[in-house]
Write a structure and sequence with these properties.
With 260 residues, the chain is mainly α. 48% of the residues lie in helices and 11% in strands. The chain has one domain. The strands form four sheets. Strands 1-4 form a two-stranded antiparallel ribbon. Strands 2-3 form a two-stranded antiparallel sheet. Strand 5 and strand 6 form a beta hairpin. The N terminus is likely disordered.
């Protein structure tokens, strides 16, 4: 779907030129990607190592954060099992599809994973051209969200208002794919489109989260196009601490009460 943000391939037009018995090097087309960006692609070992080198959080902080993730998520999964099972039945009846929607996102150190959410949209929601006007489609390609999204079902509206669609992500937390608190998990297209190479390394030096600084501060106004969303996500990465995590955690409940 997205045209922007796709990895740029190197265009090489090689000629063998012989001069005084020596072979000259291949000529590189003018639109080729710089050498350092070609060698450090998201998902490569080199990219993962570059991300790890930027993770300056203390060992104690990371252990404390992981223990909290496991304990809190374990409680949510156990306590929420029956209500989530009933909600799954209601979603399946409402949408005539699987109650769980999965999508590939980019995680810590550039490793991809399938994020899980309760389905709040029609089954063919990925066919955005079918539901969006031309203006909505342009906005969606840039921000990955639109106001009054016609794909959201009436039940889905209620689920989103209560933030219940995020509940299956606690399973992702238990598997270590994401954390409870961190930058929003985004797609590879969004990453390549809205962040520079150095920013990508910084962003993915930590695990994405269910909730984060962007969600509890200026979520409704911060956009990719304006650059404010990138700033909020990178602010968290550069200032990650137990005190900041506590602020995000408690502010999340306030945002939920406001239906954000």
């Amino acid at each position: 779907m997205e045209e922007k943000g796709q990895p740029i391939s190197r265009s090489v037009d090689a000629e063998e030129l012989v001069a005084e018995g020596s072979c000259l090097v291949s000529l590189i087309a003018a639109d080729a990607v710089p050498e350092d960006e070609v060698e450090v692609q998201v998902g490569s070992r080199e990219f993962a190592e570059a991300c790890r080198s930027l993770d300056h959080r203390s060992f104690g902080y990371k252990v404390t954060k992981r223990v909290f993730d496991i304990l809190f998520s374990g409680v949510v999964v156990v306590v929420g099992f029956l209500p989530c099972a009933l909600l799954s039945i209601a979603i399946a009846v409402d949408t005539k599809g699987s109650p769980i929607y999965t999508q590939t996102r980019i995680g810590k150190n550039g490793k991809t994973f399938r994020i899980k959410k309760f389905r709040t949209m029609v089954v063919d929601s990925d066919d955005v051209e079918k539901y969006f006007s031309e203006d909505q489609l342009k906005l969606w390609k840039r921000e990955r969200k639109v106001d009054n999204d016609p794909r959201i079902t009436p039940l889905g509206q209620l689920i989103r208002a209560a933030s219940l669609d995020e509940l299956p992500q606690f399973i992702d937390v238990l598997f270590g794919h994401i954390s409870i608190i961190g930058p929003r998990a985004i797609t590879v297209d969004e990453l390549n489109q809205h962040f520079t190479l150095d920013e990508r390394k910084m962003l993915l030096s930590v695990a994405p989260g269910i909730t984060g600084w962007w969600q509890v501060t200026d979520r409704n106004r911060a956009t990719w196009m304006g650059g404010s969303r990138q700033m909020l996500e990178l602010f968290y990465v550069q200032n990650a601490s137990l005190s900041l995590d506590a602020r995000v955690f408690f502010r999340t409940f306030k945002a939920m009460r406001r239906g954000q």
